């Protein structure tokens, strides 16, 4: 918001700032810059500070006693108490009985419990005009000379109003902070003090303590001479104002002691690990901490990551025309990446993975196993090292396992977790929370697991530990590799032989990878079975490029005249190659080169050249083999000559979106006749016309579904005007570098 906008919404009367340091001075400057108040009056004990504040333009005038200004205040004015925590009470005492009605009092202390106690001591109860607050914007600098008018922009202000705080006062303070560009949120007092003890007060104790320890060391001259970046970064906050921090320690004693005790015990474990050379323990702590800190940096940079992904709004604007050319390698296979982490974690020994998909879905699985105590190094350029803990080595996670947008994570993990001794809760994002989970909960219950779901079998899933699982012979009601894998993974923990029978072939990566880890899986047509109670041995996994991601470029090359792409090292497992078969049946020019086997999975380089397509009736036996590729295939069908009919694909309705409806809606917006049916779609291809443009321009909604988003981006190659695609952040779940690769290959795609 610009200054004029803030002024309109944020005007208060006069602002009285008691305490002219960094925090008070910066609010004064910010509010003046935004014309957010009529006048700023400063109050500081020392005359020199008053003069300095006026000379610097921080305040309009300044006095040494608050009593000097109280008589002239009136309703709508605000008093901001920005003195060290333990001095707040004496300021309140000076306000008592002299504050005119309608004036709001707020403060900026780091501890809220002590401010509440100070108010009770002075007024007997917390008055309705007091709005306790805490701007999270301090730095190691202090004093009025450090004040800046932009200190609060994009910073958070926590307000902790009590039940009897009147809402008009709270609203005034919210508007005041918003006027200087801050984001205001509220929290109960106790929660505020505990959160701040852990995130701010403890780090200050450690920084002050560490610098003091080293400064007392006889060798200190040398220590400080050689202490470079790490020491400087880590101890910056030991330059903070000692009085302010002494006050905070005393005021928030109990919460800080709790944090110190927790930290001391962890430091003790680290000490023992170093003493005994326990490298596993050290790697566990360091890899978990690195992941947490990297995640935090991404959150601060407002980049996509599992928990913040939905908050980020990404729009694709795909410009019409172009062709795709070049030699590309799309990221690693998502299904195999998930399974490599799961089986590597349960194996004995160290599993090395290459080609791992660094997309949000596979990272959510990885984080879940870290949360269950597995040491996992990486990913770095697709390389992951998993220190397996054995089939019975997982530990209870500290909280619910959050798997974001990933159905595969939730359904496969459900099977594994049913066999553990500890309870777990699996949660996900808004899209995943709408997807059916009874398809896994029911067979797990038949095995003796205790699994609770929310209404109508939706997530979260609560899985009780300690159940003795018994083997079952399960006939799947739908063709689903996730359900099959869930049952087989639970079967590792069951007494006896667990088997699954599927109505049609589905991806068999679980069966293949289990065999790769030395676990005996018997396969007989539609039936797969394994005996519980075995062991997995660590191995090396080379994850090929994901055929589901490659499909976007297969379709792109097939519909855009002048295209010729080579897609390297793509997995062409016969349970995944439906898109190749369907596109070829439509007339696509696809050749497989350098076909080979890598780690038990067939792999090839796929060459695709433009060729005119024709509509077909898609054979139902191909549906499970191309289940994730249909959104892209519908784009190909729109560019084909004649009608394409899909049946037997009702499963598409329960993916990240209802993919039949979402694609039909978007295609209609772009001028294609696409009629959804119960279990499929009928598309009238427009490829036979003389017009190069099959699609009109327009705005379509991907509904947060990565595959819908990428499919409409590809459609632009044959569009007559821009296609704007809303809600594309989730492309990062399966294909984080889609836009870069697409642009490099010749598509005109802009990410906003
Ligand atoms: O097992 C797997 O890795 C997957 C199976 C498929 O789901 P269903 O089992 O629900 O068909 C697929 O859609 C999903 O992207 C990945
Ligand atoms: C359906 C998909 O994934 P999941 O079920 O793992 O969310 C997909 O990637 O298209």
Rg estimate, integer Å: 31 Å
Strand order of the largest sheet: 3-2-1-4-5-6
Work out the strand percent: 15-25%
Low-confidence stretches: 1-9, 302-310
- Give the full name of the CATH homologous superfamily of the largest domain: Enolpyruvate transferase domain
Got a strand count?
Answer: 32
Count of helical stretches: 25
Q: Separation of termini?
A: 19 Å
* Total domain units: 4
Give every kind of bound small molecule, once each.
shikimate-3-phosphate, phosphoenolpyruvate
Helix content: 25-40%
The appropriate CATH architecture of the largest domain is Alpha-beta prism
Overview of this protein structure:
With 752 residues, the protein is of the alpha/beta class. It has 4 domains: 3-187, Rossmann fold (3-Layer(aba) Sandwich), CATH 3.40.50; 195-277, 6-phosphogluconate dehydrogenase C-terminal like domain (6-phosphogluconate dehydrogenase C-terminal fold), CATH 1.10.3660.10; 316-327 and 544-751, Enolpyruvate transferase domain (UDP-n-acetylglucosamine1-carboxyvinyl-transferase, Chain, Alpha-beta prism); 334-541, Enolpyruvate transferase domain (UDP-n-acetylglucosamine1-carboxyvinyl-transferase, Chain, Alpha-beta prism). It is 38% helix and 21% strand. It is built from 25 helices and 32 strands. The strands form 8 sheets. A 6-stranded parallel β-sheet has the order 3-2-1-4-5-6. A 4-stranded mixed β-sheet has the order 30-31-10-32. Helix 1 runs antiparallel to helix 6 (167-179) and helix 7 (189-216) packs across helix 11 (253-276). It is globular and about 90 Å long. The two termini are 19 Å apart. Residues 1-9 and 302-310 have low confidence and may be disordered. Bound molecules: shikimate-3-phosphate and phosphoenolpyruvate (PEP). The site of phosphoenolpyruvate has 9 residues, from helix 15.
């Amino acid at each position: 918001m610009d200054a004029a906008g803030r002024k309109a919404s944020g005007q208060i009367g006069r602002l009285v700032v008691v305490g002219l340091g960094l925090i008070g001075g910066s609010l004064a400057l910010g509010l003046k810059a935004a014309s957010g108040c009529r006048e700023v009056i400063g109050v500081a004990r020392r005359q020199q500070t008053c003069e300095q504040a006026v000379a610097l333009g921080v305040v309009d005038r300044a006095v040494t006693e608050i009593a000097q200004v109280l008589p002239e205040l009136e309703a709508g004015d605000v008093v901001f108490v920005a003195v060290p925590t333990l001095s707040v009470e004496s300021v309140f005492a000076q306000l008592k009985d002299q504050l005119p009605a309608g004036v709001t009092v707020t403060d900026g202390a780091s501890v809220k419990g002590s401010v509440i106690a100070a108010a009770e001591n002075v007024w007997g109860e917390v008055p309705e005009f007091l709005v306790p607050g805490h701007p999270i914007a301090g730095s190691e600098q202090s004093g009025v000379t450090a004040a800046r008018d932009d200190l609060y922009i994009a910073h958070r202000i926590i307000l902790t109003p009590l039940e009897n705080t009147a809402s008009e006062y709270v609203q005034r303070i919210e508007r005041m902070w918003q006027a200087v560009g801050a984001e205001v949120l509220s929290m109960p007092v106790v929660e505020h003090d505990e959160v701040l003890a852990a995130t701010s007060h403890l780090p200050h104790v450690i920084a002050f303590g560490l610098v003091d320890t080293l400064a007392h060391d006889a060798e200190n001259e040398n220590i400080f001479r050689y202490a470079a970046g790490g020491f400087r970064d880590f101890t910056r906050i030991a330059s903070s104002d000692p009085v302010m921090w002494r006050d905070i320690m005393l005021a928030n004693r109990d919460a800080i002691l709790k944090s110190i005790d927790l930290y001391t015990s962890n430091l003790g474990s680290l000490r023992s690990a170093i003493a005994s050379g326990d490298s596993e323990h050290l790697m566990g702590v360091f890899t978990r901490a690195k992941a947490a800190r990297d995640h935090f940096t991404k959150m601060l940079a407002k980049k996509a990551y599992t928990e913040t992904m939905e908050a980020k709004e990404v729009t694709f604007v795909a410009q019409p025309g172009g062709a795709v050319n070049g030699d590309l390698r799309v990221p690693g296979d998502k299904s195999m990446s998930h399974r490599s982490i799961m089986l590597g974690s349960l194996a004995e020994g160290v599993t090395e993975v290459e080609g791992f998909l660094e997309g949000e879905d596979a990272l959510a699985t990885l984080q879940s196993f870290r949360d269950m105590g597995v040491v996992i190094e990486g990913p770095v350029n697709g390389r992951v090292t998993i220190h397996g803990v054995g089939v019975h080595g997982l530990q209870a996670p500290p909280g619910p396992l959050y798997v974001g947008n990933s159905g595969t994570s939730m359904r496969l993990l459900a099977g594994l977790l049913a066999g553990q001794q500890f309870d777990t809760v699996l949660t996900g994002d808004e899209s995943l929370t709408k997807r059916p989970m009874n398809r896994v909960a029911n067979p797990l219950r038949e095995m003796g697991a205790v699994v609770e779901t929310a209404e109508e079998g939706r997530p979260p899933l609560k899985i009780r530990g300690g159940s003795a699982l018994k083997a079952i012979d399960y006939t799947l009601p739908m063709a689903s590799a996730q359900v099959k894998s869930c049952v087989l993974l639970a079967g590792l923990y069951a007494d006896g032989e667990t088997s699954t029978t599927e109505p049609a072939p589905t991806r068999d990566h679980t069966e293949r990878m289990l065999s790769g880890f030395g676990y005996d899986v018997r396969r007989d047509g539609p039936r797969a079975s394994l005996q519980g109670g075995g062991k997995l041995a660590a191995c090396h996994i080379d994850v090929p490029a994901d055929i589901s991601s490659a499909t976007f470029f297969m379709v792109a090359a097939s519909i855009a005249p002048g295209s010729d792409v080579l897609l390297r090292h793509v997995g062409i497992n016969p349970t995944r190659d439906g898109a190749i078969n369907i596109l070829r049946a439509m007339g696509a020019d696809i050749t497989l080169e350098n076909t080979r086997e890598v780690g038990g999975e067939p792999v090839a380089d796929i060459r695709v050249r433009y060729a005119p397509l024709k509509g077909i009736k898609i054979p139902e036996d191909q549906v499970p083999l191309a289940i994730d590729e249909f959104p892209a295939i519908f784009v190909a069908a729109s560019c084909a000559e004649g009608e394409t009919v899909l049946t037997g694909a009702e499963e598409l309705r329960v993916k990240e979106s209802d993919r039949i409806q979402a694609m039909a809606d978007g295609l209609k917006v772009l001028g294609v006749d696409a009629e959804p049916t119960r279990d499929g779609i009928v598309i009238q291809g427009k490829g036979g016309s003389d017009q190069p443009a099959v699609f009109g321009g327009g705005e379509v909604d991907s509904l947060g579904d990565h595959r819908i988003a990428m499919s409409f981006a590809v459609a632009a190659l044959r569009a007559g005007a821009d296609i704007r695609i809303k809600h594309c952040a989730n492309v990062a779940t399966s294909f984080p570098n889609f836009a870069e690769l697409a642009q490099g290959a010749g598509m005109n795609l802009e990410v906003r």
